[in-house]
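Render this sequence as a predicted structure.
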Amino acid sequence: MKIQFDTLDYQTDAVNSAVRVFEGQTIKESNFTITNDVPQGTLFASDGIGVGNRVILNEEQMLKNVNKTQILNVIVPSDNLFGNNKAFPQFNIEMETGTGKTFVYLKTILELNKQYGFLKFVIVVPSIAIKEGVLKSFEITKDYFKNQYNGVVYDLFMFDSSKLDRVRSFSSANTIDIMVTTIQSFNKDTNVMNRENDQLSGARPIDLIAETRPIVIIDEPQSVDNTDLAKDALKSLDPSAGFRYSATHRDNTYPKIYQLGAVDAYDNQLVKQIEVAGIEMDEDGNRAHLKLIDVKTGKNGISAKIEVYKKTRNDADKITMNFKAGDDMFSKTKLQAYDEVGFIQDIDATPGFESVTFSGNPEKITLESATLEDEAIKRAQISKTIEEHLNKELKFKQSGQRIKVLSLFFLDKVENYRVYDEEGNPSLGRYARIFEEEYERLIHLSKYKELNDVNVPVSEVHDGYFSADNKGKLKNTKGDTQADESTYEMIMKNKEGLLTFYDEEKHHTAKANKIRFIFSHSALKEGWDNPNVFQIATLIETKDTINKRQKIGRGLRIAVNEDGERVPGFAVNTLTVMANESYKDFAEGLQKEYEEDGVIFGVFNKDSFATIITHYDEVTEEMEILGKEKSEQLFNYLKQEEFINSSGRATDKLKQAITDQEIEVPEEFIDVVPQILVAAKSKVKSLDIKDAKDKVEVKVVKEALADDFLELWNKIKYKTTYKIHFDSNKLIEFAAKGNESFDGVDSIQTRKGTYLYKKGMVEMSQAGVKADESSESSVRATTSGAYKLPDIITFLQNETSLTRKTIVAILQSVNNLDSFKNNPLSYMNQAAKIINAIKNQLIVDGIEYTRTNDEYEQTLFSTETLNVYLGEKGNSVKVDESKQKTVYDYVVTDSSIEKDFARKAEMDDNVKFYIKLPDWFKIRTPLGPYNPDWALLYEEDDEQHLYFIVETKGDASFEQLRPHERAKILAGEKHFKAVDTDIKFKRVSDEAEIRG
């Protein structure tokens, strides 16, 4: 199988954010007919062999570009272009794990070449694991990108100190060339990259690379340039600019130009939903439970952290407490069960031999000791992981989805998976043995007999990712050795095989096709993942060195089916973490890890409202924002009125205002109240992690599949086909002169570049010397000659995908080409936006749907397996089954708006039947599939039946939706009109609006 790639809006936004930094840069010669004294993209070194990047853009213009991008992405504008490393401009791009940052920066490289002709790029990574991941991404995206970028020639190579000729060819190649290196390869004077070399005529490899002025991509900068030595190493590359990609930026001195945080990624279902299942044993302190967690040596001597039961007011709770030598266990825990343990005689802090010795029974506990309780818990973890896995396979099988399910077990010792006798013959380690016993027990249950791999021998359904010695024996490593490099290669090599079902008819019989359960060393905790990992369990005996974010990172990516196509939506994408702690502890621990990495949830500050846009021109992208001063004023008012507390968090008063969509503000902010509430709502969100104990399977209410259901279903069940009537003459006319929705190209106005004369007062005080700009005016001065005019026709062809003939016709119809001469780049960018806006509007206007004889499959309501979560963080509404008003006993919802809609539909006596339309109810449109929200049978005056398709979009008005989303909804309306069954289409934010 081959993984397929889609054009995803959020990834396109991330690419454009980086590309926009260089707006105003001269356009490359190979794409445009430009007369230029110095060819774009060429830098001649002293020996004539160098070919590199050339940025022709001053710092002031670059900062303006950055600020415009920040405002578009709702980021507070930066005052400075440079961060802590002032050697070259660098920009933070925040993308949550699993959203495709490697794909994004590879596409950004190609887009920077297409727009500006840049050729040389260096990707700097923190580890071997991530380096191998980059290489794999390059290999699997190459065909896709060549298609997208008209067969562009580009290459990527790993820096290898034994192959320095490749560095020479990097410096001289006249095509896109990308070097990948770890920071460890050039952060010391002794590195080959920093030493003179005879192969390079006495030059240092680093100097040849620096001659090209590469654009640097820094993958996980918090691990790459976290020392002064590393910053100096990056500086020695002499980059033109740098883009820093991470889910958690610790150094926020660099301007952030794009952000897709954890909350937004989950809210928009761009990654898997996380549910936590825990195996806990609670004996209420009836037994002297003792588990050594950690031993530390500090100023006050040696201490031990031990998990014990401790008496509370009503019973006993299992907690971790600090102990020192001499402590009496009964006195510390206040529980009779610990009387026989006695007191602590000794604590040994020797690494590898950590232990606590008692005067009673047991005599000793160690970090290494696996008690009977531990073994029972590990067996339960393994068993529940297998059960979750098989249930997921069954669910996909019943719904006809060909999605292979994988489960991942992390171990900290190879011998728990595989052991060797004296002659080197392998046999099962204890967790592998437990796995095989539990798998054999479960797979033969009658409910799993229809599964695809039920007859595959148990020994072939699991395998281990561990590093090996020269004889092939698995061994423990730290994740960054030469042996680990080959292990990462194996993981990447097997990626597609692991995603492919075992199928003898299709000759898919490779070892990887049979594997569904993966055991991996805990040291291999970063740089790789697999989209079809649905369960993760950690079977760690000693201190758990994998943090929670690293665990979930191996399986956050959206799943793919057997054809390599992404299958979005939480109905498919739920990652179950089998934790060795409670749901509450895991959720709190994960949030704490985010906050330690600088991701603070739910805290307002004086800049929280600065990016509220008060005026925006969609065509020119000119905008005005509230700004920092007004934002601080509003923040102080909200604190004063107790909407925000002293810690900067929302009070119940603000939460109620968000719910009511009303808030009292000073008069000067009245016009932006909707934007204030949107900004406030985004701040009060937190990570939505589900508790597996709250999960229930949704049942069909069979009695409801009767008259009212059938009456409604018969109105919406028909499928359609569409064709598009596209009037090229209208496009030319509207693009040139405009229509009722958009101004045309003829409306574009530009001005020549002017010089700004600034005058200010210099003040001296105890605080220092300060210059205030008090006045500013334009100076009547022009550059020495006219701009060199680029090939506008080719540019607009590339940007709009229209024919040359159509572009020429549009330009012949306008009367403002002087504006093009004044400022070519501004004119071309505005023209492209106008033409695309008109084109998309005409496509939607020209869609004609025709009803066919095909129908949506009604039986899927009965055969599809659905799960919901109950409780405060749940995604469901319990229905009154006796009313028989909907198909299931729970309504599955995607938002609080939908929850509210379902509750009100339940209570509304006029609503006779309603359906939350399932994911498989998709309508084809030219802009991608459209899934409507609701179908309703509504009764008026006890007799007249009305039928509605309802779209609930919450607070956002239809006009505020993305044009792409708006167009899909409009296409959906046309589909239902063509179905011709008296169905009405409504867009509402509240159930009561249906009556309007």
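Summary. The CA atoms of residues 341 and 361 lie 5 Å apart. The radius of gyration is 32 Å.
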